[in-house]
Design goal:
Layout: H1 4-7, E1 24-27, H2 37-48, E2 53-54, H3 55-62, H4 66-78, E3 82-83, H5 95-108
Antiparallel strand pairs: 1-2, 1-3
Helix pairs in contact: 2-4, 3-4
């Protein structure tokens, strides 16, 4: 068994904050020869999927921890091997604010 931090080069956080487990990724053009094994495995799955593949689905298919796959996916995005069909948003509202708004709406009804 290989520890997750070994697969990610010791990193515990992805380089992009807008990419989540439900984010869809698409394979982009580019040689994969210089990539590490886990990165190549992620890329091969994405290349075989039509219309994109969710990060969570990649984790399930590779039986790797989702947090590890998220870091690997962000690495591939940084290198131009993966892309998203729509730009991942970093300016989404805070979930706590949304819950307060929902609670306020529910009390008004």
């Amino acid at each position: 068994m290989v520890r997750p931090f070994v697969r990610t080069g010791g990193r515990v956080r992805p380089t992009r904050s807008g990419v989540r487990l439900e984010s869809l990724v698409l394979a982009a053009a580019g040689p994969a020869d210089a990539l590490k094994l886990d990165h190549r495995r992620v890329l091969l799955l994405a290349q075989g999927a039509r219309g994109g593949l969710a990060v969570a689905d990649i984790a399930a298919a590779l039986t790797l921890p989702p947090s590890t796959v998220l870091i690997l996916v962000c690495d591939l995005m940084d290198k131009g091997h993966l892309t998203t069909p729509v730009t991942a948003r970093e300016d989404e509202p805070d979930i706590h604010i949304l819950r307060e708004v929902l609670r306020g709406l529910q009390t008004k009804v």
